[in-house]
Amino acid sequence: MSLKTVLILLGLALATIFALVCVLLTRERTPRTCQHLPPEQEDVEDDQSLVFADLTAEEMSQVVRYLQGHLGVPLVEASRAKPSDNCIASVDVQVPAKAEVLRFLDGGGARPPREALAVLYFGNQPEPNITEYVVGPLPAPAYHRDMTVHKYGGKVPYHRRPVTSREYTDINALIHRELKKAPQFLTACCESDGTNLVTLTTAPRGFKSGDRVTWFVLFHNVAGTGYYLSPVGLEVLVDHGDLHVSRWQLRQVFYNGRYFTSTGDLEQEFVAGAVEVVRLQQPRADAVLGSMKPRSPPGSPGPLQFEPHGPRYSVRNNRVTFQGWSIAFGMNPNTGPRLFDIRYRGERIVYELSLQEALALYGSNCPGGMSTRYLDGSFGMGRFAYELVQGLDCPYTATYVDRHYLAESDTPKTNQKSLCIFEHDSALPLRRHFSDSQSFYYGGLRKNTLVIRTISTLINYDYIWDFMFHANGAVEVRVHATGYISSSFFHGRGTDYGNRVGPHTLGTMHLHHIHYKVDLDVDGQLNSLETQDMEYEFVKDPWSRQNTIERPYLRRKRLEREDEAAFPLNGPMPRYLSFVSHNPNKWEHPRSYRIQIISFAGKHLPTNSSMERSISWGRYQLAVTQRKEKEPTSTSVYNQNDPWTPTVTFADFINNETITNKDLVAWVTVGFLHVPHAEDIPNTVTVGNGVGFFLRPYNYFNEDPSVDSSDSVYFSSEQDVGACGANPLACLSSATTCAPHLPSFHFGGFLNL
């Protein structure tokens, strides 16, 4: 064999070895798919939480079939029903009385019968009315009980019913018929024949009980954008109170600061040259104010949160468990998210934590804006919680849960993936300390939080509802507002009521006030209310008696009556306010949970307003009352359309009863004033627009319970901090040498509209 041949073979061998090494190195760098491990099992009976569970689609259908066969009156499918018809408006679960539930959960009693609450509109009766029935037992209904008088103290008048989609359709048809009476005006003002204009409702609807007269604001409609930012200056007042649609009338017209009796009157004055017209062009999709289409090409992906060994929480039926936490979750179609039986380390802390209402109250120099006081529960904060977008609304790998509802239809609908659950790494220590004196060590714990989230889209606004559960036993409740602002046509002294944000667009000032019910059971049902705050006392220093010290001291007080525990909105409130048990902790302090409110609320409606009692919960940033089954909610969906004679008046809950050693409820109001500005275009951002409250353990434990967390980190100067056994953070490089398996992106949220 020649030298040349040997060299060639040697070169080929070296090339082969090099190629094999490259393949091995490449394989080593390609991460394996993460292997999911089952989460730690919590000591909770899975099916007990079903006592709170939302109705299944099949249960809703069973209730509808039962009502159709047992009421003895004709029922029209709600999506087709006229005001003069009878229809099933909604069906939801009827949560059993608390005493029954606790006998079942804690006392070994029988499971309460499963029941539904059905709301019916009876328009085809001598005395039209709204009736609420309890129907049960499910899944095979055999009885129904009229609960209306028992629940509300009397019949509910028919005019208080929320406006249905069919009613809006008929109103829009009336408006567009009337617009045809002003063709020359529409061409001049809006480059329109009326077909490219859309309406936005206002509420409430009039000025006295029985009214059903609504201002509708008209906007240019551009597909794929938020029309809310393109008002044309035209608003119409529609009387739709009659049971017969043919008798509905357009009562008044507003344009650019002037009022007219009809569209025909407006047309006549325009032709006569007596109307000052602002000539608007039909907005282009690429230049309209409300476009959210990206203006830059996609960049590289941002950070992605993933779980190397799968979720550390567990979701079964309607219960989620996570590192000592156990929560039953659900969704009311009107009022939105509701949680029950919240326990930490096996002890119930909260029996019920639920959203009650969201108020949006506007100012403007246009009639639609100045008369708007939306009570979003009447529109449906749960019903309009649509599918969440994975990777943006919630982490990509979150657990997504479908919710069913039945409203304005005889057939249940499903909002797929409309609630998400995930563990969130906040990139902030829950606690930490670096010791640089005496001994050198570091100790800390990441702030990992369980989050339950849903998002409601109420016409233009999107509310992000978060319920968070921390490793130290604290519960955090938070809401962020985003979406589009609502606007008025800019004219006259419009800037007295907001900021100009477009050529003819006034961003109208408004407030968002949100109300929650918090039924705390701290170390048992019976609690009292204690406040603590600081004062200064001036004392001589005890070691020389020659100097004065301003010494802070703690002032403690037990509040004994409901009137003492009703704290006005934006008024002074003790910095520490706690639900206390009669049982002490190891250090002889009452076991307690503190309520800490984070809010920047606007001013409440003046109490001499004719509609103030309908939102009287907004008088108080916090009110604590005795819990009563006859006071399950702070408001009613019927308050929106008759705020002058409210169906539920929260102020009546506060009647100076004792709150010492009683089953108590905290009613919490949070909110903020929003004065729209240029940066709200095209959308309001969540930054700075978040409010909420905490429920924090206060002497409830003997020490911070998070010390038992397996995520804790501690190492000293004497240890090898790079050793996995000494420092869990050193294990991450090997524990996370895998790639998350991300399912293909899917979104079906447009299919159910």
Automatic annotation (TrEMBL):
<dbReference type="GO" id="GO:0009308">
    <property type="term" value="P:amine metabolic process"/>
</dbReference>
<dbReference type="Pfam" id="PF02728">
    <property type="entry name" value="Cu_amine_oxidN3"/>
</dbReference>
<dbReference type="GO" id="GO:0008131">
    <property type="term" value="F:primary methylamine oxidase activity"/>
</dbReference>
<dbReference type="GO" id="GO:0048038">
    <property type="term" value="F:quinone binding"/>
</dbReference>
<keyword id="KW-0479">Metal-binding</keyword>
<keyword id="KW-0801">TPQ</keyword>
<dbReference type="InterPro" id="IPR016182">
    <property type="entry name" value="Cu_amine_oxidase_N-reg"/>
</dbReference>
<feature type="active site" description="Proton acceptor">
    <location>
        <position position="376"/>
    </location>
</feature>
<feature type="active site" description="Schiff-base intermediate with substrate; via topaquinone">
    <location>
        <position position="461"/>
    </location>
</feature>
<dbReference type="GO" id="GO:0005507">
    <property type="term" value="F:copper ion binding"/>
</dbReference>
<keyword id="KW-0560">Oxidoreductase</keyword>
<dbReference type="Pfam" id="PF01179">
    <property type="entry name" value="Cu_amine_oxid"/>
</dbReference>
<dbReference type="InterPro" id="IPR049947">
    <property type="entry name" value="Cu_Am_Ox_Cu-bd"/>
</dbReference>
<feature type="region of interest" description="Disordered">
    <location>
        <begin position="289"/>
        <end position="310"/>
    </location>
</feature>
<comment type="similarity">
    <text>Belongs to the copper/topaquinone oxidase family.</text>
</comment>
<dbReference type="InterPro" id="IPR036460">
    <property type="entry name" value="Cu_amine_oxidase_C_sf"/>
</dbReference>
<dbReference type="GO" id="GO:0005886">
    <property type="term" value="C:plasma membrane"/>
</dbReference>
<feature type="modified residue" description="2',4',5'-topaquinone">
    <location>
        <position position="461"/>
    </location>
</feature>
<dbReference type="InterPro" id="IPR015800">
    <property type="entry name" value="Cu_amine_oxidase_N2"/>
</dbReference>
<dbReference type="InterPro" id="IPR000269">
    <property type="entry name" value="Cu_amine_oxidase"/>
</dbReference>
<feature type="domain" description="Copper amine oxidase catalytic">
    <location>
        <begin position="305"/>
        <end position="706"/>
    </location>
</feature>
<protein>
    <recommendedName>
        <fullName>Amine oxidase</fullName>
        <ecNumber>1.4.3.-</ecNumber>
    </recommendedName>
</protein>
<feature type="domain" description="Copper amine oxidase N2-terminal">
    <location>
        <begin position="75"/>
        <end position="143"/>
    </location>
</feature>
<dbReference type="Pfam" id="PF02727">
    <property type="entry name" value="Cu_amine_oxidN2"/>
</dbReference>
<dbReference type="InterPro" id="IPR015798">
    <property type="entry name" value="Cu_amine_oxidase_C"/>
</dbReference>
<dbReference type="InterPro" id="IPR015802">
    <property type="entry name" value="Cu_amine_oxidase_N3"/>
</dbReference>
<feature type="domain" description="Copper amine oxidase N3-terminal">
    <location>
        <begin position="161"/>
        <end position="258"/>
    </location>
</feature>
<dbReference type="InterPro" id="IPR049948">
    <property type="entry name" value="Cu_Am_ox_TPQ-bd"/>
</dbReference>
<keyword id="KW-0186">Copper</keyword>
